[in-house]
What does this fold into?
Amino acid sequence: MIKIKLPLINLDDTFDCGQCFRWQKADGGWVGVVGGRVAKVTKNGEYIQIISNDEDTKAWEEYFDAERDYQEILGIEYANEVIEVAKEKAKGIRILKQPLWEVLISFIISQNNNIPRIKKIINLLCENFGDKIDFEGNIYYSFPTAFQLAGKDLSIIKAGFRDKYIKDAIQKFNDKISTKEELLEIKGIGEKVADCIRLFAFNDLSSFPLDVWTKRIVGELNLDMGKLGLYAGVVQQWLYHYYRNIKNQEAQKVG
DNA sequence: GTCCAGGGTCCCA
DNA sequence: TGGGACCCTGGA
It folds into this structure.
């Protein structure tokens, strides 16, 4: 078992804030697959505990961006009080550093789509083309590599018009892609998806993806995105989480 | 059953 | 620079 000291993390908020699609709540913790690594994660005091088929501590520390000082990020005060409220509600979120290929395909699939179906399509992708992994008596599937997907009939995953974008990504992908310009050369990757990839794979926390929700929020709050600074992407996650989960629930109670 | 919208992007005028 | 089309499905 691996232990990583992350006192401030909230696993529910981190895995369920829309940055990743392959984690599920199970027996008091979360189970998920990252690339080809399955893990069960629980929080115990100041530490998270990880049981995995790949007990490579460094790899998991990197995934959770363990070196990053969230105390410092949370200590920054923003002029806008709604940001401060959202921060208070969502302060347990950490931005994960996920495998590039996985984020790239997942967010191509996310376009003009809703989260339950995004998860369904990604599951079909993994079950049909990934490797079978037996972990603690259950079967999981790795996220298929570009090589595994090459030449395959993707209609089975029911991604609709996104098939052709995935195919273009399979052709153009290489591990060295590291800039937004390179990302934008792949069909199906526009501004928003590229910014998601910067935030969730390149770990560039200043990247501020503008999706439908965030556009609404930015408009409603009259936010100047340019002034959000080095951690604009974290602010974006707080706002997204706050509006989707908390404000929505409040609205439903009232209605 | 029907209808709208979904963590957008492409394409064309 | 703006608007329609796009696969499919969850939710009302």
User: Anything to note?
Assistant: The mean pLDDT of chain A is 95.
